[in-house]
Design a protein that fits this description.
The protein has 286 residues and is mainly α. Helices cover 81% and strands 0% of the residues. The protein is globular, with a radius of gyration of 20 Å.
Amino acid sequence: MNNLGEVYRRQGKLVEAEELYRRSIAIVERAPALNPLAIANALNNLGILYTAQRRYLDAEPLLRRALDIKRRALGTERREVALSLLALGELYSYQGKYAEALPILLEALAIGDKTLPPTHPLVGDIVSALGALYNSIGNYGQAETLLRRGLGIRERAFGLDHPSVATSLNNLAVVYKGQRRYHEAEDLLKRSIAIYERNYGTDHPEVARGRWNLADVYYGTGRFADAETEYRRAIAIQERVLGREHSDLTWILEGLARTLRSTNREGEAALLDVRAAAIRAKHAQE
């Protein structure tokens, strides 16, 4: 049941995944002494799901409880502990709590480097998370080095057409976008989107994210018609998959508004800004 929930999560079927994770937790908690790691894994997976949904306050206690269970059951230097540290570190990164996230992710990497082969997929996941964090704080050189390392690990472990490879390509493209290396970013994003679409179809949150980033690249190079097309595609996917009031929509709507202003369409842009502000205000109250 927990494994099926993971399949649904990766497919973007978040409601179905949450239901299975909750049922899995209810089952294993009936006899916690028999398999504490089963409880920890179920809690960790549900916490990761909540993180993906930006339900950060719901995610943190689950991830912390999972980490505590694993440390008590296994000690500190085990792969399973590194996995929970990664989930918690990514949560803090997404919240912008970089000072808290960095030591957690570095601890995860230290465990991974000590206990796993250098090409292990978990090591790839940890260095990729660290690379994304360094990009967020403007350390582009360190970010590129780590993200390239993560990309290489994932390509060797999974092949060139795996969703994890697409994620690495997308994150590396974001680094290039921040440095205005737009042509390099465009190539990576097109490859990333194609991989996601082959694996998940066209209506998936990661496809929307890729198109949103591609729109930003087009805007940065003055290709406003192409940017508008990609922003609108990203919005349509988000609305179909995650609903019309998802928090990510604020950024995409504002990107589209910025693009429309560049083509002297102030009236349309203003309406988009009003909608984005309403979504942001709604989430601020939650």
